[in-house]
Amino acid sequence: AETVRNDNSRWHQKDLSFCFGCAHNPTGTDPTPEQWAKIADVFSFIQEKNHIPFFDVAYQGFASGSLDEDATSVRLFAERGMEFFVAQSYSKSLGLCAERIGAINVVCSSANAATSVRSQLKRIAAYVLESTGSWGEDCGK
């Protein structure tokens, strides 16, 4: 953690850093809660440069067998008041692999930030929903 903190040249304004929240793919190795605390320490430091963590939580419940335990990383960042994104997929955990069911969650530090993010997400959702796949049509058959 100290090496990362001391090398400021690696962290640029408004960078996005990708993290597997649990069940790291392809290794399957998960940091311990203590290791996640150290990772969160690093992110606390680099968020001064508006660096944003982006969690991929596609396999929640698969790593430990517990949905709650597999959310440890995300919960830790939220408890520290950090801003971050969480992409959750329910395709695997709910056995809906062909349906691409999921959500994007954004943890914001203020109501103003949440309003701005909500506005952008609505624009993205409108675009995505205007060009949906054939799932609805297939259900009607």
UniProtKB/TrEMBL annotation:
<dbReference type="Pfam" id="PF00155">
    <property type="entry name" value="Aminotran_1_2"/>
</dbReference>
<dbReference type="InterPro" id="IPR000796">
    <property type="entry name" value="Asp_trans"/>
</dbReference>
<keyword id="KW-0663">Pyridoxal phosphate</keyword>
<dbReference type="GO" id="GO:0008483">
    <property type="term" value="F:transaminase activity"/>
</dbReference>
<dbReference type="GO" id="GO:0006520">
    <property type="term" value="P:amino acid metabolic process"/>
</dbReference>
<comment type="subunit">
    <text>Homodimer.</text>
</comment>
<dbReference type="InterPro" id="IPR015421">
    <property type="entry name" value="PyrdxlP-dep_Trfase_major"/>
</dbReference>
<dbReference type="InterPro" id="IPR004838">
    <property type="entry name" value="NHTrfase_class1_PyrdxlP-BS"/>
</dbReference>
<dbReference type="InterPro" id="IPR015424">
    <property type="entry name" value="PyrdxlP-dep_Trfase"/>
</dbReference>
<keyword id="KW-0032">Aminotransferase</keyword>
<dbReference type="GO" id="GO:0030170">
    <property type="term" value="F:pyridoxal phosphate binding"/>
</dbReference>
<feature type="domain" description="Aminotransferase class I/classII large">
    <location>
        <begin position="17"/>
        <end position="127"/>
    </location>
</feature>
<protein>
    <recommendedName>
        <fullName>Aminotransferase class I/classII large domain-containing protein</fullName>
    </recommendedName>
</protein>
<keyword id="KW-0808">Transferase</keyword>
<comment type="similarity">
    <text>Belongs to the class-I pyridoxal-phosphate-dependent aminotransferase family.</text>
</comment>
<dbReference type="InterPro" id="IPR004839">
    <property type="entry name" value="Aminotransferase_I/II_large"/>
</dbReference>
